[in-house]
TrEMBL record:
GO molecular function, one term: phosphopantothenoylcysteine decarboxylase activity
Taxonomic lineage of the native organism: Bacteria, Bacillati, Actinomycetota, Actinomycetes, Micrococcales
Protein name: Coenzyme A biosynthesis bifunctional protein CoaBC
Keywords carried by this UniProt record: Decarboxylase, Flavoprotein, FMN, Ligase, Lyase, Magnesium, Metal-binding, Multifunctional enzyme
Full-protein residues shown: 189 to 413 of 413
Function noted in UniProt: Catalyzes two steps in the biosynthesis of coenzyme A. In the first step cysteine is conjugated to 4'-phosphopantothenate to form 4-phosphopantothenoylcysteine, in the latter compound is decarboxylated to form 4'-phosphopantotheine. Catalyzes two sequential steps in the biosynthesis of coenzyme A. In the first step cysteine is conjugated to 4'-phosphopantothenate to form 4-phosphopantothenoylcysteine. In the second step the latter compound is decarboxylated to form 4'-phosphopantotheine.
Membership in a protein family: In the N-terminal section; belongs to the HFCD (homo-oligomeric flavin containing Cys decarboxylase) superfamily. In the C-terminal section; belongs to the PPC synthetase family.
Length: 225
């Protein structure tokens, strides 16, 4: 049995990857499986929290005993986070959110006969949900003592370069903690095991965690507690 150190706490967790539609049948997406966010939701539940899981596309089952809010796009995720954050003691943003979306969504399937050999897409920037949560533009006001944890998935192979980027991101996003992992064609996203570095709000390293995503989830929750 886990310590009930999150008993009665409300935690909103985003998981998975957003999908930005191009037309009724196609989207721009990413390779997030949702495994880490789902593990966090299950771990927080096991420690007594009331969990709201805001799920973009997941490739794993939703754990029992959590409240589920399903979203597709970054804009839908923003609405769900704004809603959940108003009553949350902590918000954990594990979802991989599309930074850009197609400027227009075609009403009908885009036809190759009509578009020719080259199809140009125009993309517009999505809101940075995490940054707008911490700077107070997403919700009327951040709840006193609300802990906000962000994730950073970077592809730099050099440790120092990766940490420099992540450290700046921790400060820029205004998070209490940033969970940093290296991702690539084969690493992390669909994997069962992971390896993360944990940064504080100043961008300084507070620890590392290696192992299956459930044990890493518990390390992240230890920091949250
Ligand atoms: O800037 P970057 O995408 O690396 O930041 C990752 C963190 O920011 C994650 O916690 C992710 O959920 C969040 N994010 C967001 N809104 C975006 C892009 C990322 O909240 N538009």
């Amino acid at each position: 049995l886990r310590p009930q150190d999150l008993a009665g706490r409300r935690i909103a967790i985003t998981a998975g990857g957003t999908r930005e539609p191009l037309d009724p049948v196609r989207f721009l997406g990413n390779r997030s499986s949702g495994k880490q966010g789902v593990a966090l939701a299950a771990a927080a539940r096991d420690r007594g929290a009331h969990v709201t899981l805001i799920a973009a596309h997941l490739e794993v089952p939703v754990p029992a005993g959590v409240a589920l809010v399903e979203v597709q796009t970054a804009q839908e995720l923003a609405v769900a986070v704004a809603d959940a954050a108003q009553v949350a003691d902590a918000v954990v943003m594990a979802a991989a959110v599309a930074d850009y979306r197609p400027e227009t969504v075609a009403d009908d399937k885009i036809k190759k006969d009509a578009t020719g050999d080259v199809l140009e897409l125009r993309l517009v920037k999505n809101p940075d949900i995490l940054a707008s949560l911490t700077n107070g533009t997403l919700t009327p006001k951040r709840l006193p003592g609300q802990v906000v944890i962000g994730f950073a998935a970077e592809t730099e192979t050099d440790d120092a370069a990766l940490l420099a980027i992540a450290s700046a991101k921790a400060v820029r996003k205004g998070v209490d903690f940033l969970v940093v992992n290296r991702v690539g064609w084969t690493e992390v996203f669909a994997a069962d095991d992971t390896r993360v570095t944990l940064l504080d709000r100043a961008g300084s390293i507070v620890g590392d965690a290696v192992g299956d995503k459930m044990s890493v989830a518990h390390r992240i929750l230890d920091l949250l507690v």
